[in-house]
Amino acid sequence: MSTKLSDSEQYLWNYIERNIIEIPNYSIAELSVEAAVSTATIVRTLKKKGYSGYADFKYKLKERRKLHEDFSQFDQEDEGIRLVITKNEQEVMRTISMISIQKLEEAIRIITASRRLILFARGFSEMVAQEMMIKFQLTEKYCELFTDPEIIKIMSKKLSPEDAVLFISLNGETPELVNAAQNCQQHNIATLLLTTAGESTLASLSDVALVGFKSDGSFFPDYEVRSRLPLTILSRILLDSYALRKKEI
Q1: What is the pLDDT along the chain (249 residues), one digit of tens a residue?
Q2: CATH top-level class for 101-248?
Q3: 7-73 CATH, one of 3.30.70.1280, 1.20.58.220, 1.10.10.10, 1.10.357.140
Q4: Residue 79: how many CB atoms within 10 A of its CB?
Q5: Beta strand pairing status for 163-168 and 208-211?
Q6: What is the pTM of this model?
Q7: Do 104 and 227 touch, CB atoms closer than 8 A?
Q8: What are the boundaries of each domain within the chain?
């Protein structure tokens, strides 16, 4: 099953995210009425998002609500701090819940089979990529990182089908990374992506996209410095899983 959401499925998912607090109180029939979609659309959407069905989705939402209750020790005047903690907790938990084991295994297979693993990243995502490069090298995997836009453009044209490329991009629309992905596609080079934008251009160009959850809003609204926490979670899970599989060989 394709994980790309149709227009009606994306509409439903947007509705769920806007009303996430009330959703656990709805039956699937009630959600169908409230969101004005069929129950089949609900089930199909949730399966694409990594859940086995509506019951599984509600259960995981309720588990997260229990975690939220742990913040009750904060005084009322600490509401801002509570919001900060909850925002980060939400990014961690929802990113983990969105991970597809099948896609994770496919990413590991591609990395293992590649002669070289090339990382492309820009901006604040470079910090995530830098850590990944070092840890892949510690597993004795040949790994290089490129962050300069001109070098990324040149390198993406010089790779061979024996190589694999891993893009790290929060929004999946960075022009030089999109250009590099197009070059890789033309030369039959396997591509992986860590992102929070499953419907982005980079996601559509990548063979395997691991997608995390990015919360709305930023505590630094005047600067383009959105949290890379979802990318950090995805990178750690990919690295740990790769190291585990390598030991099993």
Answers
A1: 456 789 999 999 889 888 877 888 899 999 999 999 999 999 999 988 878 889 988 888 777 666 555 555 555 556 667 677 777 777 888 888 888 899 999 999 999 999 999 999 999 999 999 999 999 999 999 999 999 999 999 999 999 999 999 999 999 999 999 999 999 999 999 999 999 988 899 999 999 999 998 776 554 444 344 578 899 999 999 999 999 998 876
A2: alpha beta
A3: 1.10.10.10
A4: 10
A5: unpaired
A6: 0.71
A7: no
A8: 7-73, 101-248
C-alpha 158/C-alpha 153 separation (Å) is 9
Token pair of 193 as six digits: 């992506």
Residue 210 tokens read as 């691991």
Cα 244 from Cα 125, distance rounded (Å): 25
Distances (CA, A) of 233 to 94, 97, 131: 11, 11, 12
- Sheet containing 143-146: order of strands: 143-146, 116-121, 163-168, 190-195, 208-211
